User: What shape does this take?
Amino acid sequence: MYGLNSSQFACAAFLWPALIAESASEIASAAAREFANLAIEPQPQTGAREPQWTTQNCVALELPTVRLRDFSTTGEGTPTLLCAPFALHGSTITDFAPGHSLVAALQGAGMRRVFVTDWRSASPDMRFLSIDNYLADLNVLVDELGSRVNLLGLCQGGWMALLSELAHDTPIPIFRELVALGGGRILGRHALQFWAPSFPDPEEVRALLQSPNAAGSTAFRRLESRFRDWYASTLDLPGTYYLQVVEHLFKHNHLSTGRFVALSRKVDLSKLRCPLFLLAAGDDDVVAPGQIFATEQLVDRRCSIEKAVAPCGHLGLFMGKEILARIWPDIASWLSH
Assistant: This one.
């Protein structure tokens, strides 16, 4: 679902005029015009409801960019922080539904202090926030938890992966035009419309959620309705943050080459020395296992590294019933040692 298959590639056609433009300015103008036509197109009323959290929690701390959600059942033990994606969809991906909750899977495996980053959708006055702003707030969350935490980072999401496919050969003025069209932000509803305008059919939803219920059953229809609400609810991103991600991470790959600067410090992954567990999805059309496992070559060779490939697609890693029941308890056990 989060891949760039033939039907979804047609939805990225707003970039095609760029392929025949003669200059960067022409490319930006052509792409911007196509996107503008899309952006001003009337949006149908979906009737979608705001996604709800499944597991009982409270907001432990509120910062300008993020809420720290506390799912803990005790005050003892090392805290585990789920760093949810700040991309197209919200943080409820970590706690989607009964039987489809990563939070609940970790709790069931004995992890009693679980927290989640609940990223805020960017309002107009947040349009100038940068990567540093988000990293600074993430540092505050870690300090709030006592500085020593188990950190679980989930994928940035499908539209970011689509972006990585196109960013390398696409001039930066295109992306600046897209930000300008959102008044300084990337608007999630527009991104969803061109990236994946059609909702997955029931069998696709059933497969990615690994539901044992038949597609036409009452139980599955309730689950599918919940997924529709989650899918239709999108986040807006600050334009400054978005352009930094495009230029520094996707276009120039600064993180893997040791040239990425965050909070005034150069990030050198070769100096990272801590235990790592790298989990990939065998059928992931967003992030291939080889991309995940390449991390092993970038960090300190003395790092203790475990690797696993789960039999699922991208979203199945975090929402799939079987994966949550079979794979994540092993990771929780690894974290506890």
The first helix runs from residue 6 to 11. Residues 1-23, 157-162 have pLDDT under 50 and may be disordered. The longest strand covers residues 114-119.
